[in-house]
Specification:
Catalytic activity: a very-long-chain acyl-CoA + malonyl-CoA + H(+) = a very-long-chain 3-oxoacyl-CoA + CO2 + CoA
Structural class: mainly alpha
GO molecular function, one term: fatty acid elongase activity
Subcellular location: Membrane
Membrane topology: Multi-pass membrane protein
EC number: 2.3.1.199
Amino acid sequence: MNETDYQLHLVEYDFERRFDERVAIEWMQENWSKSFVFCGLYAATIFGGQHFMRERQKLDLRRPLVLWSLGLTLFSIIGTVRTGRYMLHILNTSGFKQSVCDQSFYNAPVSKFWVYAFVISKAPQLGDTIFIVLRKQRLIFLHWYHHITVLLYSWYSYKDQVAGGCWFMTMNYLVHSLMYSYSTLRAAGVRMPRPYTTIIITTMQIAQMSMGLTVNGLVYMWMQEGHCPSYLDNIMWSSLMYLSYLLLIIYQSYFKGAWGKGSKGE
């Protein structure tokens, strides 16, 4: 792809170009451990909230939930488009191996803002659970476990710009685009074929976790050759995270009957 084609397919906006990822990375290197504080406050809030709501009527938060889910839907769709375009550019120009080992994803004008937005967004996304608690819906282990571990791992990894991020973030943006779209429609009262829709979402989640494990395996293998910049502890934590999600999603879907009930797995 020549420079003209690159500019044609990868036009960056002014706010994306002006975003200083060096400042963002430096801040994360100094402050990533604050994610533990967010997670502690999150756990105290949701479990304390459940206790507080035990003897109280559930709240009708349909309109705020529609706005919340719609906002996250739009954010996820835009993030998918921007990071996905850059990943496709790498695939087309440098091949699959480079897409796995790539680090330019963290500082390319098209993607750098959306990479940092992805990482930071894991803190406000904890708010998903507040709606569940205040509406007195069933809070499954996978839901809050996922929120905590993704926040911790995202902040931990961004500071090192490890290989595999191109795939991890783009896949997450894509799956969340579908999930939050589904949540928005449900909150708005749109009738949907719940079992079939949930099967599609669950299948995409299983594919995401399986691909995450595959990417980790490739990063480890190519890291031995000196091609993939990463760390053994990062690969280990990431693999454990993806494997635990995969097993929990399968358990929740096949053994707990989530498809029939339309439960949200992530």
